[in-house]
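Residues pack. Consider this:
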Amino acid sequence: MSWKLLAKIVVIGGAAGFLSVVAISSTLDNAAGEKPLTASEATPSLIARGEYLARLGDCAACHTVPGRPPFTGGLRMNTPIGAIFTTNITPDPTYGIGSFTLTGFDRALRFGVSKGHTLYPAMPYPSYSNTTPDDVAALYAYFKSGVTPSATPNIANEIPFPLSMRWPLTFWRLLWAPRPAPFKPGSLDPVQARGAYFVDGLGHCGECHTPRALTMQVRAQTRTDGDAYLSGAVIENYFAPSLRTGGHGSLADWSTQDIAEFLKTGANRYGIVFGSMTDVIVHSTRFMTDDDALATAKYLKSIVDNQAMPFMYDEATHQLLQKGDTKKPGSLVYLDNCAACHRPDGLGYERVFPRLAGNPVVMAPEAISLATIVLEGSLTPRTSATPAQFAMPSFAWRLDDQEVADVVNFIRSSWGNRSAPVTPEVIAKLRKSIHSN
């Protein structure tokens, strides 16, 4: 949503607006055309299925934070109108969801409505709207019977009145959130459909990898909504790269096995996970079955743009560095700070220090991810498949804005990489943003 627009709605709408929107919301929510869900017996197999689905939905990443019991929330999410804190979703009847019926649980999960008010869309219910009734029931069984209840109070949101009023969010939900409906495969083959169900649904990949409109809804919820779908977007001082096959900066050079391996381990021959995607790997996708990981990969590889082209490595930069030629801006900074791990040829060491030549993150339309990694450093995830962790230190203390811009531009224009440059002024703003967080 546009937070300024929301503020105007709150001030102008008044009580009449509140009553109108409640009536409209009730009418539309009750017109879903679906039979009421019936809770099944919480058998061990159903609870296990629900636990797996909760991992695919990455529920723990937002609702489990250090210092609090599992699934009791408390994660701070900063917004332009104040801080939102995630809530307790254990089966505690007072602070959690212990009093929820299956229908109430479904309304929160797929409709974004809980206890009579619309949820903030930080809860990705627009994506969860495609969840099938069987999977909703499995998730309900898990959270009701497979999660330990905890009487941990929720943390109050830090949003001042009148922006704290919830009813204007209903306008956003009715205008921009898709009508909840169980997933339909359409013309996709069974394997691709399995992947699409995860990508568009519980995996909520588009919440980060699809750009948003000024009113903050994703511009394309599914692939039929246009080319913006999974085309990449800026989020949290990073650029979540394109998940399409569409040339440089996309998955054009990745095979289905490369994608599946990345989902399961956070690394492959082309790169290593960084930023908030690390939490996705650790809390969610590393638990995927091999079949689900491969189905996801096959679906993503089916999204092909006309301009798809493979990366072509260029030896010129490597040869110049071997000769000690550092005339190109940023080359000496690279040799002094980066080459020991990523090598003068930019090919790095597979699954340890990622290659920079042909790396989609390096070739992305936005330089923000590479610049943030230089400033903040990075740490590889620890999973059962990758028990050893490798760290890249922060260079914010060592390099000034001009030097960071130079080395980022050097990397983005060497070894066959062809990406737009970044200015020291942009680096200065990014540094300030990182420091403020």
Residues 3-29 form the longest helix (27 residues). Residues 1-33 have pLDDT under 50 and may be disordered.
